[in-house]
Amino acid sequence: MAGETSADPARGDLSAVSFTPTGLPLGPLTPPTPEEARRTAAEGWIWGFALVENYRTMYPQAVDDADPRHVGGFGTFRHYPQPFGPANTDVVTPNNDTPYSWAWLDLRTEPWVVEVPATDRYYVLALHDLDTSYVGFVGSRTTGPGAGRYLVTGPTQAVAHPAAPEGFDGVLHADTQLVGILGRTYLAGPEDVPQLAAVQEQYRLRPLSAHLGTEPPPPAAEPVWPLWREEARYGIEFFGFLDFLLGFFPELPADADLRGRLAELGIGSGDFEPAALPAAVREAVLLGIADARAQLDRASAGAADSAGLFGTRAQLGTDYLRRAVGVREGLYGLPTEEAWYGGWPQDSEGHRPPDAHQRDYLLRFPPGRLPPARFFWSATLYGLPDRLLVANAIGRYSIGDRTPGLVHDADGGLTLWVSHRQPVDPARAANWLPAPDGPFALVIRVYGPDPAVTDGSWSLPPLTPAP
User: Fold this and answer.
1) Structure pTM?
2) Average pLDDT by consecutive 10-residue portion of the chain (467 residues)?
3) Omega before 461 within 30 of 0, i.e. cis
4) Which domains does the chain have, with CATH numbers?
């Protein structure tokens, strides 16, 4: 294990030598200076934010079987045919346009098989690595409406399965040994739940050996999963979780420099111990975390849409700060070619975000300027700072092109009313999106966005205080 030492007499005194997982010596470790430690901690916190936030979701869903959010462990789907509401807290900024199907795969011993049915209903199964980079997509946009069978391989299995085997429609190669699947399936309305559920039940997972009818390989050892603690997100314990997760994430060339510097702090060894750091270095790590949090706050404040925040590893590149913004603003958001997300960092009068003293807003789409979508669009409102749905008197959490009874303006445009109090005017009440009695965030989603959305020739109208 990297970072372990040995004093085996047959090998000589190796107490100052670090070893890679293959047992090859790295050479003596030189402790970083406090200045170096601060910089590494800041960069490492930004880079590792996606992994730790992903674990924050994975732990209750796949590991903690006493948690109500548990999906059943690894290798099984849990479907939610009902639209999300305030009680659903698995992820921030959830949507209720496309109810979720959750699953997690452990690829340490063998690949897994994903099967989907033929359906004309919009859906996407998005598979992501531990750092939330997308492995690939199965769904309406990418693989079409037909039934399909896909192989998912881990980092040690890609050589054996470079292309789709016979009987498979594709292969998805993961860079981490643990992979998440977040499925989204279109829901036309409450009356559509049984039909939606029938489609979800046809999303199936099996180990490759079960599909082939062969003897399964010996199971991998059960990890000692660290108990998730909310307070760990912003303290030095953050790096304890990152240290554990790196055991499932073989080093990639693009990350080699940073991971080497993290290793100098003992992060990546599998047994990171903050108390073992010199006091000055430990204090520098805490300062680095504070630096990183401030940097993320600044970057998040200017994020008006989802361009560049979500995607595959090739799409995201090494801009880890933008990836962290995406994770913070909407964990597991889809890339813009699948779904575009927009919002308002400030309203038309410069308040950021819409604040409690300014409770009533209107959002007017002029004639011909509704969000251009191949599939559909919606506007969803969240309370701040937790970015979750907020209970309201009519149980409406989003509004969009599928909302029944919308009243268009006389000129053909559409005005949405965002307020805590229900409008008295019937036409306004029909177009009402209830807001909490406090700060909120409003998010537009465009599924299958037209090129006008992604190239910027279409843009969101201002969020304007109501007269």
Assistant:
1) 0.85
2) 32 33 44 95 98 98 96 96 87 87 97 98 98 98 97 88 88 97 93 96 97 95 96 95 98 97 95 94 97 96 84 96 94 94 88 67 96 95 91 93 94 95 94 92 94 93 91
3) no
4) 9-53+227-301 (1.10.3360), 62-212 (2.60.40.1610), 336-465 (2.60.120.1600)
